[in-house]
Amino acid sequence: MLFGAAAVALGAALIFAPVTVHGIAIITGLGLISVGAGSFFRPSPAAGGPGVAPRIPSLTRLVGGALIALGALMALWPDAGAPWLAFLVGAALVVHGALALWNAITGRDGWHADARAAAAIMGAATIVLGVVAFSWPVLTLTVFRLGLALWLVAVGLHAVWDAVVWLRSARVGGALEVGAPVRDASSRSGARPSRLRRWARTVGAVASLAAAALLAWGSGTVLGGSPMPQPGAFYTPPADVPGAPGQLLRSEPLDSGVPEGARAWKILYTTTHPDDTPAVSSGTVLAPVEPTKRPLPLLSIAHGTTGVVAQCAPSMSAAPFSDGAGTALAEMVAQHGWLAVTSDYVGLGTRGVHPYLVGDAEARNVLDASRAVQQLDAVTTTTETVVWGHSQGGQGALWTGQIAEDYAPELTVRGVAAFAPAADLFGLAEVDKNDAAGKTVSAYIATTWARLYPDLDLKSQLTPGSQGPVEHIRSLCFNGSDVLAAILRGSQIPNQIFPDRLLNGEFGDRLKAQTPVGPFPAPVLVAQGRADPLVRPEMQRDWVEARCTDGVDIDYRTFPGLSHNTLVAADSPLTPQIVQWTLDRWEGKPAAPNCDDLPASTPDAEQTPG
């Protein structure tokens, strides 16, 4: 009764007390100790039934002792890390559930058949909950906080009830002395529990098993992501690929996700890797519905992170034009008569390794897409262009402006707009190394750069416990329903992916080399949300200040309350601003850089008193 009451109290504390992760670990450990002690000292009637002296089965003692040891380890060592503690929770649940199931099947506790069935179902539910806990090593102590609390309360109440029934049975038998014969805990003078109580016990056990099974199914569904279509024949280059970059290989109409007032195509074209070796990339073209004989103003788009495997290509998505400032893009095309071309980048759609956050490679892909669209018979466009990009694409847009004059001199860049750009890749890896989204980005870098730069030997240098989750994340796209799966997988990586010694070595130097520093051939706009948890506003301001110090004129705009994605949402104040800024670049109006009076970039949370 004492240990059962303790388990109930600790379960209630998990539900209602505002405790930290360490506090959760300590309370859960004490709860396991209570449950284990209750099992260790709980007398069970012998298989012979009523009238036989109570005994404690050796298996019950063994498992009770194991629960006490696991609980003590958790309570005394809460700093061991969430994955290890979650493993202990899962192990404890599986062990306890297995014991209950074994006792119910073998009848070792002398229960009636209906009680044995309920105990077996409850044991199975506990095992399933323990198995699910292994899938969430970091989140178990928080996401499963309520589940563990309810489990402690249920087990504790069950122990208290058993104690009450045992005492009543002993009193009816006239023997409270230790070692005196007692009646079966489930029987008083041979009477079975009421039918209502037996039904309630069984229904509760079935409901627990159903809830645990639903949780297991939901975990597998969420963490597994959604099936993505594989690239078809369109993405396979012909046998006779031209050697020159920017050559259109094929095109076909695109119907999926096309904004109203626009028409679209998929394109396949030639490009190059940063070492000048030939490559093939795919992309999309968006143009007004109404054809025109005049060349359409060209908008070159560098898209944000969608993943690093072939099926993550934006052109294969159900919403290929929703990335980044999708609403502004639709307005530029449908209302202002522009043509937009977006590169998928090499390795997305087409074969090869996607050069994730390798600025020179992204820029070449964008510029070659802008060359290839000149050869599309259905439209006519200019060789003058404004470049847009969000997040990964923001870095790509800045690099596009930086190398355009040397790599594609026939194209004239009239402006570069970068929204929350990953301009400081080293800073991003350093600042976000312990956050779920940052770990997801780091996982994408780890899997692609390990193949792009084999001399770094990244795969063998990741932190312990990172390699498996990194491989899982690699196969998940960062669009649609897979975004949640990718971030949740990132949240389950126990430590930062890249150890500090790696960040401080040659790998860190190569991350720094991806910072676009200019010069830029046209006005530059950088937009940043002040509530961005991924590309931190203070980090972005540092990059802007460094460019201003180097003599680069930048129009830097910050937006209070906007995060990484809401910055480019349909209702963002940036939407009309970026449309007008782009039209101004085309009309040749003077830009308005503000290096001499940069707006605040302090994170919103730091500006709120308290």
UniProtKB/TrEMBL annotation:
Domain of life, per lineage: Bacteria
Which spans are transmembrane here? 23-41, 62-78, 84-105, 117-136, 148-167, 199-218
Q: Where is this region: Disordered?
A: 589-610
Alphabetically sorted, this entry's keywords are:
Membrane, Transmembrane, Transmembrane helix
Name of this protein: Secretory lipase
Organism for this UniProt entry: Leucobacter alluvii
